[in-house]
Amino acid sequence: MIEFNPDGSIKLPDKILKQKRGNEFRMKNGLCVTIKKEVVNDRSPKKCILSVKLSEKFTDDSFVTKVYSQFMNASEVPSKLSKKDKGEFEVEVGTCFSRCKDCTKLVNNFREFLDGNVIEIQGSCSFKGQGRVFCYEDHFE
User: Fold this and answer.
1) 110 to each of 13, 32, 131, 136, how far by Cα in Å?
2) Strand, helix or coil at 108?
3) Which residues neighbour 49 within 8 Å (Cβ) at sequence distance 6 or greater?
4) Cα 40 off chain centre by
5) How many whole angstroms separate alpha carbon 80 and alpha carbon 92?
6) Residue 5 — pLDDT band, cuts 50, 70, 90?
7) Is 18 helix (H, G, I), strand (E, B) or coil?
């Protein structure tokens, strides 16, 4: 059932509200990165933008270029990193057959570098990934 706030907006479920508050807390008080995926052009030539926002606790943002350069050395997709503001970067991901795979690799590189402190927002990206849950019976007898 849908509930409404007094101002007419839709009331968010408690689970989503709790997650949103947790993400805000992580961005204010911890070393965390928010990555928002947006599809800019869904027709050929396809192009996506990853908006990378650092939390307030970061004093040095040089790790972003370090993680990005490691990604560039191992990826097929053409991409470009640009700094928008203090603590805000934008990665433009160009058209390539492995665009979504390489984009996921970049997000995972940030996740690995920051010990999992990455908040990933799907935005207009429709890529779901493998989505398979590990099942012991599938791999072992």
Assistant:
1) 29, 10, 19, 28
2) helix
3) 37, 38, 40, 90, 91, 92, 93
4) 15
5) 5
6) confident
7) helix
Of the listed ranges 24-28, 38-42, 104-108, 136-140, the one predicted with least confidence:
136-140
Neighbouring CB atoms inside 10 A of 79's CB total 20
Name the helix (H) or strand (E) containing 73. helix 62-74
Residue 141 has pLDDT above 70, yes or no: no
- 């928010």: which residue's tokens? 34
Q: How many CB atoms lie within 10 A of CB 1?
A: 2
Q: Map residue 69 onto helix, strand or coil.
A: helix
Task: Label residues 88-118 b or e (16+ Cβ within 10 Å = b).
Answer: ebbbebeebeebbebbbebbebbbebbeeeb
**What is the average pLDDT value for the chain, to the nearest integer?**
86
